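Sequence design from tokenized structure. All designs in this work follow the same two-part layout: the structure record, then the generated sequence. An example of the structure record is given first.
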């Protein structure tokens, strides 16, 4: 790991100015991905801007219509929140299934979605619940936020501030997890909302994505059996040491059926 300048700003404006004034700076949220990458020399920023001192980015609020998470809200905070569980139980279940206690207590919502690991859990929640990401510049819908493997619509000096999740009629998330990392080999988030059904998949492709055929089928009949006749193509799915594309295609259908059943049981 090479030398770098470390900054811990005490205000959002200070953090943004530190980023704007450097051509080689990185935000540091939980550090669950960036710090290991730096140790392996896969990343070598000259400046780290630690956001841990910005309490305004850690706030969580819940009302009858939505859950709003500050970008620095830790996964463990989401997993343990009674208010969030009462409003969107699928969200607390998802957060509680991330990695291990150390990662859940250090990793953050904003860090997860800005990194956009293909196997991360939160991107599926954002897509499944049609969440809105508010940044230091604008608001972005989940459907436009994720653009590819480890890629988002964020500009270089743009900072995620909050994520707003509309409360669904019912929703559930199911994943087939890597037994070591707990990353999703395949995870599926199913949500029934006032504007229709959304089915979001993570772990299977280059980036989290939605399956319109499943959404249409569940929109007509919200029942696991409605997915029986749907064929999931393996053509563009990931292949690695954990699973081949055909197995991931099979898991998508299995996890979608389980998520639908779990949502119905609420």
């Amino acid at each position: 790991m090479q030398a770098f300048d470390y900054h811990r700003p005490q205000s959002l404006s200070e953090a943004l100015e530190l980023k704007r004034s450097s051509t080689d700076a990185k935000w540091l949220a939980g550090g669950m991905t960036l710090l290991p990458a730096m140790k392996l020399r896969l990343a070598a920023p000259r400046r780290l801007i630690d956001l841990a001192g910005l309490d305004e980015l850690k706030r969580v609020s819940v009302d009858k219509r939505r859950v709003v998470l500050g970008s620095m809200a830790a996964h463990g905070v989401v997993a343990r929140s009674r208010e969030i569980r009462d409003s969107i139980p699928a969200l607390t279940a998802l957060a509680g299934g991330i990695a291990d206690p150390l990662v859940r207590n250090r990793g953050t919502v904003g860090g997860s979605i800005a990194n956009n690991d293909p196997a991360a859990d939160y991107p599926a929640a954002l897509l499944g619940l049609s969440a809105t990401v508010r940044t230091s510049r604008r608001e972005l819908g989940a459907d436009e936020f994720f653009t590819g493997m480890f890629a988002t619509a964020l500009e270089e000096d743009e900072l995620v501030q909050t994520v707003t999740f509309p409360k669904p009629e019912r929703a559930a998330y199911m994943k087939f997890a890597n037994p070591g990392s707990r990353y999703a080999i395949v995870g599926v988030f199913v949500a029934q909302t006032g504007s229709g059904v959304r089915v979001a998949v993570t772990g299977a492709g280059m980036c989290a994505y939605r399956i319109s055929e499943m959404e249409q089928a569940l929109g007509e009949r919200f029942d696991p059996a409605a997915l029986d006749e749907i064929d999931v193509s393996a053509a563009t799915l990931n292949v690695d040491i954990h699973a081949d594309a055909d197995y991931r295609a099979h898991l998508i259908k299995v996890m979608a059926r389980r998520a639908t059943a779990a949502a119905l049981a609420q």
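The chain has a mean pLDDT of 97. We note this feature because it recurs in several other targets discussed in the main text.
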